[in-house]
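JOB MANIFEST
job_type = single_chain_structure
chain_count = 1
residues = 518
[input]
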Amino acid sequence: MSTYLDRSRTEGVSPSPRAVLAVVCISTFMLLLDTTVVNLALADLQSGLHASLGQLQWVIDAYLLTLGTFLLLAGAAGDRYGQTRLFRAGLVVFTLGSLACSLAPSVGMLIAARAAQGIGGALLLGIGLPMLRRTFTGAELNRAVGLFGASIGLATAIGPLIGGGLTDMFGWRAIFVINVPIGVACLILALIRLVSSRADVKAPLDIPGAILLGLSLAALIFGLIEANMERWDSPQVLASLIVSAGGFAALIVTETRRSAPLIPRQLIRQPQFIGASVTAFVSNGLLVGASAIIALYFQNVLGESPMAAGLRFLSLSLAAFLAGILGGRKPFASIPLTAQMIASLAATSAGIGCLLLAGPDMAPLVTIPALALAGLGMGIGSVSLSRIALDAAEPDQAGVSAGVVNTMRQIGASVGVAAFGTIFAHAATARLTATLGHISIPAGLDATNLTAAVASGAGTQPLRDFPSHTVALLEPLLTAASQRGLNVVLGTAAAVGLLVAAVITADHFVRRRSHHAE
């Protein structure tokens, strides 16, 4: 195997390529697990901390938002100040953030701890892939990236299963406790077996750009989540969306004038890299955003335990893992990366869309192959997008290139969670309001509170303390409203994903034809 490349200095023990691969893949699995592991704990968290759907969305998005915002800075900082040092710091911050999450006494404290977790996760994810590039070459690099991609696909896919099992046995706090011993073990390995290094890159970090990006995204997500409870034309929603649009406009203007912008200009000029960034944003947004709603439906409408609901995602987990493993090996590694990228987005979108055929009880005969197809797309994408990111940049900018693609993954997930939560809430509310208008509401039941609970993904759970005749009357209505909200989410996700895949495909063929004409 190749040795660890040091462009200026190294110190400490001899490097171990296997140790680099192990610590990068395990830490990547751990931090990305926390993007989905929460999904199957949402129902328990909702009842334990009396959280609304908006607060549940922030529990997910506080992590994804800081993870996505700091990723670009993390990759660039690693290229400039030393990947190993910052990687170790990321392990410390992530592990302490996980401990704080497990001890959080309120939703507000949990959201704050999740944000801290995201900062540590950004250091790990933003630096992990460039470390592999510095450690491996040729076919060994392809295999290492394949394992890295498999860890991404497996973490994204198996999160609901692990989250469901831990929540079932120990409660929602266990999903964060488990990170602590893993983080400590990775830190010990990183201290013993990874070589300290520093790259010869002196360009300044674009901290103002990162802050502007974070604030703009936060305003956008706040507006989308607020739209769950308010009208789209309410002052809070409009103000946050206007602030977000203004922030993004200011970001574009300032970035064009900076000598060292967040995204290097040479990357923006590469169509394949732009396609990879868009694919990362859309595919992760669709799968993570829709999975949160699906998980709530399994538990709060179908009445399944967190573990049983997690088992429904097992086919997705296995498909994502196998696709990630095989994606870095022949003959799959020889398939053009653009074709892999398009196939991943199309498969993910089609798999989500096929869930529409499962009916209100989400029949396993349809659910299992549909989720497997979505997992196949996720696994293919986790490898192909990572390879495109590495191919697009020079070694000294590998951290920035990988950071852009991974940033788009996390930003897509955070926007997807917020957007699909809003779509679900409005669709479910419209359906339930229409049906409640045609029946006589039983005494002691507040229709407004009932509608708000269903809009928050509570399904039929608000009926637990009511008499059997009330349950018999209202349960079909609440189920139908929840199913309507889920179906609109699934249909929207599938349509958006397939449309984007078609646009990327058309753009690729137009560029090829134009190139041949020249």
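[summary]
DSSP finds 19 helices and two strands in the chain.
The longest strand covers residues 9-11.
exit_status = 0
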